[in-house]
Amino acid sequence: MIRLEHVDKRYGNGHMALSGVDLVIRRGEFVFIVGPSGSGKSSLIRLLYREELPTTGDVYIDQFHLTRMRRSQVPRLRRQLGVVFQDVKLLPQRSVAQNVAFAMEVVGASSRDIAKRVPAVLELVGLARRRESFPHQLSGGEQQRLGIARALVNNPVYLIADEPTGNLDPDTAGEIMRLFLEINRRGATVIMATHARDLVNQVQRRVVAIEQGRIVRDELKGAYGHEA
């Protein structure tokens, strides 16, 4: 379970990105984080994988107290997390399979486990036939699928995505959303910050809306709603 309690985030320039945020996300949920640009969505997402710390308040993920944990504990936390970015940050000199395998190598997985897991994940995201291709040979949608495969390969409990369809055309974005729904159906908790109004309205999962750093709406089977 993820818990944020009385969280504020103020940056060095004085900008208050988050204010008084209380939020609980239970295992197995699919949660959209929505709101206008600059509302605090990405700041909230970065707190979840401990890229940043709150100015005040507490963030918990299962047994981890992110606000107080030692730096040496961060790798243990991140083994439970898969993170997908709008800019997928692929390794250009590595093939599709090697990009995915690298995510297992950095956590010390055995060669046997890598050889078994990588093909299974590529099959799940529809890239099994592109395993020897390089990132520059892939379409935008395929690159995003590769980013998702890399995030999934270590069997994360939580899949965190920051605008994963932002650079994609509507049809490709719909395919990526269906993939996230399948991943959720298989048991992973999905937290997605997005501007994809039409997709949010179609899927009708839990919607947490942020405006000016505050949660203004939290609805099960919600819609995107109106931007400020």
List keywords for this structure.
228 residues, alpha/beta, 4-stranded antiparallel β-sheet, 10 strands, globular
Q: Could you give a short description of this structure?
A:
The chain has 7 helices and 10 strands.
Secondary structure layout plus pairing:
Blueprint lengths: L1 E9 L5 E10 L4 E5 L6 H8 L7 E6 L2 E2 L8 H5 L2 E5 L10 H10 L5 H14 L15 H13 L5 E5 L7 H16 L3 E5 L3 H7 L2 E6 L2 E6 L9
Describe the protein.
The protein is α/β, with parallel strands linked by helices. Helices cover 32% and strands 26% of the residues. The protein has seven helices and ten strands. The strands form two sheets. A six-stranded mixed beta sheet has the order 6-7-8-3-9-10, sandwiched between helices. Strand 4 (56-61) and strand 5 (64-65) form a beta hairpin. The longest helix is centred in the last third of the chain and has 16 residues, at 170-185. The two termini are 30 Å apart. 36% of the residues are buried. The mean pLDDT is 92.
Strands of the widest sheet, in order across it, are: 6-7-8-3-9-10
Shape: globular
Q: In this structure, how is the largest beta sheet organized? A: 6 strands, mixed
**Individual helix count:** 7
- Give the overall average pLDDT: 92
Low-confidence stretches: none
